[in-house]
Amino acid sequence: KDQIVTLNNKEDRFLRDAASEMSRLYDKKLILDNRTYNKNSIKDKIEEARIISDTEINEAKETLYMEITDKVGMISYDLFKRPEDFLDEVNKVLGSISEEKSIVELPVGEEYMYLEAGIHLHKPGEKCKFCGNLVSEERYLAIKKYFDADEVKAIKKEVDRMKEKIGEAISSLQEIKLDFNDLQEPYKEKIGVQTRLLRAEITKALNGFQTIKEVLEKKNQFEKINPIILVEEVDYSIYIDKINEDIISFNNKIDNLNAEKIQARNILELHHIAIYISEDKYQDIQRKKRELGIDIIKLDEEIKEFKSEIDIIKDSIRNIENNINEFIRETQSTEK
User: Fold this and answer.
1) Which contacts (CB < 8 Å, 24+ apart) does range 150-157 have?
2) pLDDT of 16-48, one tens digit each?
3) By CB neighbour count within 10 A (0-12 exposed, 13-18 middle, 19+ buried), where does 269 fall?
4) Under a CB-based contact definition with an 8 Å cutoff, are residues 238 and 75 in contact?
5) Cα–Cα distance measured from residue 243 to residue 250, given in angstroms and rounded to the nearest whole number
6) Which residues of 313-336 are buried (b: 16+ CB within 10 A; e: fewer)?
7) Distance CA 20, CA 7 (A)
8) pLDDT value of residue 232
9) 6 φ, ψ to 5°?
10) CB neighbours (10 Å) of residue 51?
11) Can you tell me the distance from the alpha carbon of 38 to that of 162, in angstroms, rounded to the nearest whole number?
12) Alpha helix locations (H) across the chain?
């Protein structure tokens, strides 16, 4: 009996220490009520205890540390413009040429652009604001007639329209905010990887649009420009789809976080109980119990049965004593 008591006391101390340590695990997030968690809390779950994998541990820990926050909005494709989607239209404009002929020779390249942009700033007889030469009336009227021609105007209008569209596409990309600071781990890290790849794709697109913009700046109405061929194709979809997939997963996690936290705590608690009871110290106590051949539960039942039998014997003794006393009283009464 003394050996049993000693072993039980050792087991209780071991489990009491284990309960104390477990109540401090994961920044005290594992056990909700540390004050009531004790050796009996562990004893009640020993049969359920099991070691889990590192993957399961990490997933449960991540859930344990997550906090309920607002959901995160998904990425829309609307702002993500691709230069490839503008190429057919741009190349058509670059290949257009006016049949309108100027009676005076016109410059090409940048000088043409200066001429086109500055014609309204000049008057016949004045000095040119760019080169300082005198502007003759004949030359002025010839150049103005050329730029006022419907066909020339139409090509210029198309070039300007495409410049505007390309500018809007560039602005759209520059305004994209890939801010996921409200996300929690592990989603923040996973989406962070995809975000960096998506930003690289945006940079690639901006470079493509910049190339188109520079070529359009050189376009004039009487000179064809070879079609633009972009070396690198832009593809946002793989990154946007993956980010949105992770955002959906995060939002679903937030919706069910309270229930998942309960499950995570239970899984981790059973895991750590399994670790504690697998320690040599605890196993040594159990081995010594087995060597004594003592089943504590069975012993308690036997003690109860023994006490019950003692109570029956005591009742029998009291009955016998009562009968003896009754017999004595009857005998004494007869003698009188």
Assistant:
1) 151/98, 151/99, 151/100, 151/221, 152/98, 152/100, 152/221, 155/93, 155/96, 155/97, 155/98, 155/221, 156/116, 156/221
2) 999 999 999 999 999 998 889 999 999 999 999
3) buried
4) no
5) 10
6) eeeeeeeeeeeeeeeeeeeeeeee
7) 20
8) 87
9) -60, -45
10) 13
11) 75
12) 2-22, 25-28, 39-43, 54-65, 87-94, 110-118, 137-148, 150-174, 187-218, 237-255, 257-277, 280-291, 296-335
Length of the chain: 336
Residue 69 contacts residue 257 (beta carbons within 8 Å) = no
What's the number of CA atoms in the CB half-sphere (13 Å) around residue 296? 14
Buried b (16+ CB within 10 A) or exposed e, 292-311: eeeeeeeeeeeeeeeeeeee
Q: Alpha-carbon distance 9 to 231, whole Å? A: 78
Largest CA distance in the chain: 173
Q: Quote the CA–CA distance of 200 and 177 in Å, as a whole number.
A: 14
Distance CA 20, CA 23 (A): 5
Question: Which amino acid is it at 158?
Answer: E
Given a cut of 90, whether residue 237 has pLDDT beyond it is: yes
Query: What's the one-letter identity of residue 129?
Result: K
Secondary structure letter of residue 76 according to DSSP: P
Per DSSP, helices labelled H in 81-135 are: 87-94, 110-118
Amino acid identity, position 81 = K
Q: Which residues pair with 265 in a beta bridge?
A: none
- How far apart are the C-alpha atoms of 99 and 152, rounded to whole Å? 8
Q: How many whole angstroms separate alpha carbon 113 and alpha carbon 292? A: 104
Q: In this predicted model, what pLDDT tens digit does every residue of 176-234 receive, in sequence order?
A: 989 888 788 888 899 999 999 999 999 999 999 999 999 998 887 778 899 999 988 99
The pair phi, psi for residue 120, each rounded to 5°, is -75, -10
Calpha distance 75→61 (Å, rounded): 28
